[in-house]
Structure formats: structure tokens, C-alpha cells
């Protein structure tokens, strides 16, 4: 699998991860800031949470890691958490804002 195919599979996998408190996936919520496919088959994901004190932070990071590592061609998943910039509702996709009634 080439890098573009892996990127598509990673995006597909990330869209299956939901914040347990909000019925929208982490991509549509705007929680995924960056996804890099590395030459060695590794994947780097830099993401945030809706709040620094999110009680399910560990389980979301673990779920993202497991789903990426399960993709054929991926040798390693490095999921890093950041709060810079802090997440806000404007980072959500239009679809997510409509679904949650923010428009």
C-alpha cells in the first residue's frame, strides 16, 4: 500500500472514533490537527480534545492508536495530544455544527 492509500485508510479509521459525550466523530469535530504518513510505514497523528480535563482522554487516544495500527502497511502509530491551539466550536465541520445545532 502506498502513502496515499494509507492516508485514506487512516482518515477512514479516524472517522470511526467518536467522543463518547458528543455523537460526532473526531475528524468532523475538528479534533485531528495533523496526520503524517512516514516513509517507514509509521503514522503520526496530532490531535486535541474538546477540553483539557476530558475524563476519557486515555481511551480516545488508545482507540485511535489501535485503529491505526490495525491498518495494513502501518508499522507504528504515534498519537500525540496537544492543546495548542485550544479546540473551539469553530473547528468543527459544517456538517458537525448542523448535527449538533450550532448553526
Automatic annotation (TrEMBL):
A Pfam family: FeS_assembly_P
Occurrences of domain MIP18 family-like (ranges): 7-79
Signal peptide: none
InterPro entries xref list: Fe-S_Maturation_MIP18, FSCA_dom_sf, MIP18-like
Identification of the protein by name: Iron-sulfur cluster assembly protein
UniProt organism field: Chitinophaga horti
